[in-house]
Structure formats: structure tokens, C-alpha cells
Amino acid sequence: MKNGRRKFTGDEKMAILRRHLVDKMAVSDVCDQVGIHPTLFYRWQKELFDRGSVVFERGGDQGRVVATADRQQRRQDKKIAALKQKLASKDEVIAEIMASHVQLKKSLGEI
User: Fold this and answer.
1) Model confidence over 19-41: pLDDT tens digits?
2) CA dihedral 97, 99, 100, 101 (to 10 degrees)
């Protein structure tokens, strides 16, 4: 069953906000045209003003923001790979210990 909620992309949200901020349309008119509630519009506007400064950081180069995210992802991937290797190493040690334990039990006649 469909939820009924629409999901707007970032570009769609910017286009809607632009109608009010640049084209000087009334918020109620914009919301009626798009079919959203004014509180949602104001939430998007607040988010734009709160987080919009990211665009202007480091000379306005959004590529750097993406590069930072990519760098963090690579760092996380390396950490995951290292932890998987460590876990595999521990599994090998446990297998060796268990094998020697079984061999000892066999030699003592317990198995």
C-alpha cells in the first residue's frame, strides 16, 4: 500500500523556495500550487538558511564537500577491512586451539 507522502529532491525544494525568494510569490500561493503545507515550506527555508553556508565554505567549491564525504567513506571502508582481517585472524587462532584441544582429549581417551 502506498504511503501517500511525496518526496521532493533537493533541486525541487530549491525551485519551490526560489519562487518565493526570487520571484517574490506569496508563500500561500507557492504552497497551493505545489500542494504542500506552509509549515513544510518554512521548515525547508529554515534548513536552507541554517545549512546553506556549506556552499560558501572553502571558496564555494561543493566538490570539496563531496571529497570530504568520499574521504570519510574510504576511511570507514579501510577500518571495516582491518576489522574483518582481525576477526579472521582470531577465528584461525580459535580453530587451532580447538583442534589441539580435541587432539589432547583424544590422546587422554576422553573422546
Assistant:
1) 999 999 999 999 999 999 999 99
2) 80
Torsion of Cα atoms, 54 then 58 then 59 then 63, to 10°: -70
Q: CA angle 50-55-60, nearest 5°?
A: 150
Query: How far apart are alpha carbons 94 and 86 in whole angstroms?
Result: 12
Instruction: Give CA–CA dist 10/19, Å, rounded.
Output: 14
* Those residues with Cβ within 8 angstroms of residue 39's Cβ, 6 or more apart along the chain or in another chain: none
Residue 57: alpha-carbon gap to chain centroid: 21
Q: 0.70 cut: is pTM over it?
A: no
